[in-house]
């Protein structure tokens, strides 16, 4: 398999090694550079390569040219200049070329020093020869010879004295034989004190002594060559450490090493500068790492030079891969709405436009193909002379902030629409209640099989749908506070999904994690949400398919989710592989009356959204056009200890004894009376709160207290159940008092016990729904289908 | 060449190479050159191969001494027709010009003669002279070396080309590398990463 563009190729690395191995054969620096550059011209992405004698400032590089200085310490051998035709192909080799340039520099420097040594050696030999000749000539005149020798020595000593380098000569016992003035000055010891002293004890700090001595001893023993160049610390009399770079020569007699001669340069300042530079770099790196925003710096050509970890995470580009690429490639920004590339601030800054203080927002396309909403700002980097040498880009991920903003905006929009819809739905609902009651009653009066009975059944079904619609409207609107119970999420989902998919050809995979917590929710409302989502999923796959419903436990911490408080949640996902939702409308799917279907009121998802909000939960969607959608619902988990204690309501109820009905609408009073009568109660119906209190007092006095009461909360122009319950509860504390209201928003319906009631029920309701409520809260009666559990 | 023989010992490298290999040796030390040349020749003769040498840088005395050390007689090898040597310029620059066609024909003939004589293989070592840069036809050096790669597929002569790095400029040395599939580096024969196949050279 051939490597992808931009990947390192082993054969190319082999070429670089090969160049390095073979270059040493070329006798001249020019030959070496010709050979090397000819080879580099054959690297991937390189159009041309040549050697330049210049060793200038890299910041002034022309675009498309890569320069690799051939330099060792202070010695420059020009630079290898590469004209890069394909930066992606070339980039992986850049560090290797830096290394190659260094190795070439070492090769050339070694040659230079060897040549220098040879010259020095030649001069030395010449001098020795001359001196020998002179001595031979002057041997007859001993005094003259001695004088000359003294003069020679003095001259040599004078050279030693003025030398910038430290000159030190050691005998085989490492005793100082020669130490010039510079050496003495540096160590802070007078010459007479230094001569004859052991060098290691005199000048080498204890922590380095063992290592340096070992090298010296190996050289004396002929076990290794004396390293030509060697750095080590010396210690002055005052205890200061100085770094010295040594050039060493072994002194031989008859092939045996009898000592060493070394010249050293004090490189302490250079070392300190290097350390300071390294520390400065480290400080900069630490600062960059600790910044919570992404930071990218570029050179004047807009190529990435540095980036911190946050920038690496947000862009998906590690610095190693990003370095040298254009900023536009690493930081690809597009307009969130149009998807058009945004001209970055860096580009504008490079074009000379004033950008200081400006911020732009857009979608960052990461290396892995993700999108992140970001805001960025940019500033020029200037050198001490004020010249721009690059730019620094600072950016942050604002996805969460936008999500929160979107969440708030949607909430406000839904509130406004809900207020309007709720008012209409409430009146309509009251009317429906009456119709429902009478048709229900008429149906009960019919015998099975009668033609009228069938017509009434259809009427009830139609009314049921009308009631669902108004309930959805009411639930979506400001009201619909959930009547919470602790329920088993597993059962809720299994039943809900089964019900929603009945009659559908779509298959479902239900994946419920073992850690799925019980939840404290209104099972009817949440069932409605599940139903909406599953039906949506089915409708998104007109050609059939599979719906994946999964659920798991999830603990959120502060800041994990913009709309959710920290705590434990059941996270339910409904995933389809259907048509998906276009990006431009995906943010509107929770808006009321927004629908992409030919049929449908556009209330399903709006209602689901509203329900989840009132449950202090959340609902969100991810979708890709043509690939499907995933709706995710977060349900607050039930407090520890409450899970498992709840059961679902029994299906039926049979009562007995006295019952009280309070409603100012005559048709509702009649309908309720009939419902309760059929359940086995003897019913007293009244129209006002005052009458209800009086009837209760009388029943208690007669020894036949009401066992149940169904009370309308609001009576036009008089006392309703809300006001009457306190007195009634005082008279009949054991009575099961059910609050009924067409305002499902009424807090009494969702939290009846806080207002003195036993339970709440939203109008309109059927006889069986009332029976379920009574079954849950009344003592078990013969004929009931099972025991009810009180909350 | 023995039909079963598929690798040969160059004499100066650690491992054997396939028969018909085209090897380049870049050197910068006279001893390195002579050592490789003499070992290559004597190992070929010990294997009874047709062996030829084109170089100005080895003397008769050196040849005689080395052959004797290896138990061979220079005169006897020449007489048997197994060994031949000539100065580079005589062979490569005949008539004062470099003619790749003539050289290719020469190599072909060398191999055919070896086969006709029933020898188990054929090998040639030659050192290129820096005069190639100024001789008429000298610009066709790379073309020639590239064609040798083709030729050796049909006429598997094991060939070593010696180039003295001290006598050529760096760019020429790198160019020469591109036409030799194998290289000698520190006594080891390695695949040359800069090698460009003859077809690609032709396209250039």
Q: What would the principal axes of the Cα set say about the shape of chain A?
A: elongated
Q: Main beta sheet of chain B, described?
A: 7 strands, mixed
What Rg of chain B is obtained from the alpha carbons, in whole angstroms?
A: 16 Å
The radius of gyration over CA of chain A amounts to 46 Å
Tally of contiguous helical segments of chain B: 8
Task: State the end-to-end distance of chain B.
Answer: 35 Å
Query: How many DSSP-defined strands of chain B?
Result: 9
For the largest sheet of chain B, list the strands in their spatial order: 5-4-6-7-3-8-9
Q: Describe the oligomeric state of these chains in a short phrase.
A: heterodimer
Sketch the major β-sheet of chain A.
Answer: 6 strands, antiparallel
Describe the structure.
The complex is a heterodimer of chains A (791) and B (204). Helix content of chain A is 43%, strand content 23%. In chain A, the strands form 6 sheets. Chain A has a 6-stranded antiparallel beta sheet with strand order 10-9-14-13-12-11. In chain A, strands 5-4-8-7-6 form a 5-stranded antiparallel beta sheet. In chain A, strands 16-18-19-21-20 form a 5-stranded mixed beta sheet. Chain A starts with 9 loop residues before the first helix and ends in a 14-residue tail after the last helix. Chain B is of the alpha/beta class and 204 residues long. Chain B contains 8 helices and 9 strands. A 7-stranded mixed beta sheet of chain B has the order 5-4-6-7-3-8-9, sandwiched between helices. Chain B has a two-stranded antiparallel sheet with strand order 1-2. At the A-B interface, helix 1 and helix 2 of A face helix 7 of B.
């Amino acid at each position: 398999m051939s490597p992808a563009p931009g990947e390192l190729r082993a054969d190319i690395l082999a070429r670089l090694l090969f160049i390095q191995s073979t270059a040493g054969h070329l006798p001249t620096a020019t030959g070496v550079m010709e050979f090397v550059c000819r080879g580099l011209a054959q690297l991937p992405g390189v159009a041309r390569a040549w050697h330049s004698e210049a060793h200038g400032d890299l910041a002034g590089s022309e675009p498309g040219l890569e320069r690799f200085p051939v330099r060792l310490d202070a010695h420059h051998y020009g630079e290898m200049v590469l004209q890069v035709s394909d930066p992606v192909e070339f980039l992986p080799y850049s560090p290797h070329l830096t290394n190659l340039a260094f190795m070439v520099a070492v090769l050339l420097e070694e040659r230079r020093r060897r040549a220098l040594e040879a010259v020095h050696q030649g001069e030395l030999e010449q001098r020795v020869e001359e001196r020998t000749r002179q001595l031979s000539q002057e041997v007859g005149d001993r005094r003259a010879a001695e004088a000359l020798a003294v003069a020679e020595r003095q001259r040599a000593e004078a050279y030693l004295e003025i030398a910038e380098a430290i000159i030190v000569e050691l005998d085989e016992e490492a005793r100082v034989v020669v130490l010039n003035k510079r050496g003495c000055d540096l160590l802070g010891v007078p010459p007479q004190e230094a001569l004859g002293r052991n060098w290691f004890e005199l000048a080498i700090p204890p922590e380095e002594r063992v290592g340096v001595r070992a090298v010296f001893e190996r050289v004396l023993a002929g076990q290794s060559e004396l390293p030509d160049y060697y750095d080590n610390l010396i210690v002055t009399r005052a205890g200061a450490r100085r770094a010295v770079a040594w050039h060493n020569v072994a002194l031989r007699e008859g092939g045996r090493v009898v000592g060493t001669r070394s010249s050293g340069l004090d490189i302490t300042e250079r070392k300190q500068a290097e350390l300071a530079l390294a520390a400065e770099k480290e400080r900069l790196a630490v600062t960059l790492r600790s910044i919570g925003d992404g930071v990218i710096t570029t050179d004047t050509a807009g190529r990435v030079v540095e980036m911190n970890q946050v920038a690496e995470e947000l862009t998906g580009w590690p610095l190693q891969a990003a370095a040298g690429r254009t900023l536009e490639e690493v930081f690809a920004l597009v307009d969130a709405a149009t998807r058009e590339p945004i001209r970055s601030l860096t580009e504008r800054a490079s074009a000379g436009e004033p950008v200081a203080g400006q911020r732009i927002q857009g979608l960052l396309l990461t290396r892995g193909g993700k999108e992140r909403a970001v805001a960025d700002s940019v500033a020029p980097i200037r050198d001490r002379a004020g010249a721009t040498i690059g730019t620094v880009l600072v950016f942050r991920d604002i996805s969460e902030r936008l999500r929160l903003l979107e969440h708030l905006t949607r909430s406000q929009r839904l509130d406004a629409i809900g207020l309007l819809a709720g008012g209409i739905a409430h009146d309509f609902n009251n009317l429906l209640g009456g119709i429902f009651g009478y048709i229900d009653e008429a149906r009960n009066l019919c015998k099975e099989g009668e033609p009228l009975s069938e017509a009434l059944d259809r009427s009830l079904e139609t009314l049921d749908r009308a009631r669902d619609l108004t309930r959805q409207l009411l639930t979506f609107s400001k009201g619909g506070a959930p009547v919470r119970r602790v329920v088993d999420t597993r059962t809720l989902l299994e039943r809900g999904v089964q019900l929603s998919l009945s009659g559908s050809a779509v298959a479902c995979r239900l994946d419920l994690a073992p850690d799925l917590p019980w939840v404290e929710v209104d099972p009817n409302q949440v069932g409605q949400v599940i139903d909406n989502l599953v039906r949506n999923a089915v409708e998104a796959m007109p050609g059939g398919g599979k719906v994946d419903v999964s659920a798991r436990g999830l603990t959120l911490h502060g800041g994990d989710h913009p709309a959710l408080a920290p705590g434990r949640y059941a996270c339910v996902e409904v995933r389809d592989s259907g048509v998906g939702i276009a990006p431009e409308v995906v943010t509107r799917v929770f808006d009321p009356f927004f629908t992409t279907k030919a049929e449908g009121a556009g209330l399903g998802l709006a209602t689901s959204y509203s329900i989840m909000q009132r449950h202090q939960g959340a609902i969100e969607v991810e979708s890709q056009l043509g690939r499907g959608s995933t709706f995710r619902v977060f349900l607050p988990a039930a407090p520890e200890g409450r899970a498992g204690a709840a059961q679902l309501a029994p299906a039926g109820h049979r009562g007995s004894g006295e019952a009280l009905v309070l409603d100012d609408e005559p048709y509702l009073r009649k309908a309720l009376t009939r419902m309760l009568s059929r359940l086995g109660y003897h019913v007293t119906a009244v129209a006002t709160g005052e009458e209800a209190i009086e009837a209760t007092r009388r029943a208690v006095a007669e020894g036949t207290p009401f066992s149940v009461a169904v009370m309308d909360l609001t009576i036009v122009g008089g006392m309703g159940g809300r006001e009457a319950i306190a007195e009634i509860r005082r008279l009949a504390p054991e009575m099961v008092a059910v609050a009924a209201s067409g305002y499902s928003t009424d807090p009494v319906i969702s939290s009846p016990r806080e207002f003195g009631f036993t339970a709440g029920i939203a109008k309109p309701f059927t006889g069986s729904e009332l029976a379920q409520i009574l079954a849950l809260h009344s003592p078990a009666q013969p004929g009931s289908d099972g025991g009810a559990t009180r909350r | 060449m023995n039909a079963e023989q598929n690798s040969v010992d160059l004499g100066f490298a650690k491992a054997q190479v396939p028969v018909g290999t085209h090897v380049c040796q870049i050197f910068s030390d006279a001893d390195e050159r002579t050592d490789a040349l003499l070992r290559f020749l004597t190992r070929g003769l010990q294997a009874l191969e047709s062996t030829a040498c084109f170089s100005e840088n080895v003397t008769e005395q050196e040849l005689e001494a080395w052959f004797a050390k290896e138990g061979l007689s220079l005169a006897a090898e020449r007489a048997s027709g197994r060994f031949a040597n000539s100065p580079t310029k005589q062979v490569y620059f005949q008539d004062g010009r470099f003619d790749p066609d003539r050289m290719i024909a020469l190599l072909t003939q060398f191999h055919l003669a070896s086969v006709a004589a029933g020898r188990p293989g054929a090998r040639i070592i030659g050192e290129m002279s820096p005069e190639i840069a100024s001789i008429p036809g000298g610009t066709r050096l790379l073309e020639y070396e590239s064609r040798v790669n083709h030729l050796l597929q049909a006429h598997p002569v094991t060939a070593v080309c010696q180039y003295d790095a001290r006598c050529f400029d760096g760019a020429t040395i790198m160019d020469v590398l591109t036409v030799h599939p194998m290289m000698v580096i520190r006594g080891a024969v390695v695949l040359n990463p800069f090698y460009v196949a003859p077809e690609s050279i032709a396209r250039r």
